[in-house]
Amino acid sequence: LHGFDMNNIAVVDLFNFTERSGGQAITVWPQGEGPHPGDVSHWGDQVLQSTWVPNDQNYTFLQEIVADIGERYCIDQDRIFIAGFSMGAFFTNQIACDHADLFRGFAPVAGGKPQSCANAQSAIMIQHGTADDIVVLSSGEESRDFWLDQNECGSSSTSSLNNCAFYDGCPDDK
């Protein structure tokens, strides 16, 4: 999912999952609401304001995309993931709360924690760099801390490649 004042084409080079998978993945680049065709657009219901507000229109849109791809291609419904950048990452975090059953895992990049969350637990991979001057690093840290608590993970971590941290005590499927 693209960020604020971006379009779906702008994130292709950021992720490019199909190429990186050796052609073993189907990648879909949804376009948020706003001016068309493919100019800039936004997620939420307050176009041209940098505010993410979850709404049924956006959730239905994603559910219809998943259903359409499932009808057109032979896909493993248990291996559908979603990633979002910046405002798309805020959206990805909120989807993980509101529709955890729609995707196997969630990968917000440079976004903040969800606005609210009932009892959802989700497999999540959070990425956030230090060069972002719009969505600051502390937003990513808040998102990490939120999901550690939500998924009932421990606070100790194991470092791995590229400064990634893997947290102990999480449920096996999270």
Strand order of the largest sheet: 1-2
- Main pleated sheet: 2 strands, parallel
Strand content: 5-15%
Rg from Cα: 16 Å
The SS-based structural class is: alpha+beta
Note poorly predicted spans.
none
Shape: globular
Helix proportion of residues, in percent? 25-40%
Task: Please report the distance between the alpha carbons of the first and last residues.
Answer: 21 Å
* Element string (H = helix, E = strand): HHHEHEHEE
Number of helices: 5
Mean pLDDT: 83
Number of strands: 4
Set down the secondary structure blueprint.
Layout: H1 12-15, H2 17-20, H3 56-72, E1 81-85, H4 87-98, E2 105-109, H5 137-150, E3 157-159, E4 165-167
Parallel strand pairs: 1-2
Antiparallel strand pairs: 3-4
Walk me through the structure.
The protein has five helices and four strands; from the N terminus they run H-H-H-E-H-E-H-E-E. It has 174 residues and is an alpha+beta fold. It has a two-stranded parallel ribbon with strand order 1-2. The chain has a two-stranded antiparallel sheet with strand order 3-4. The mean pLDDT is 83.
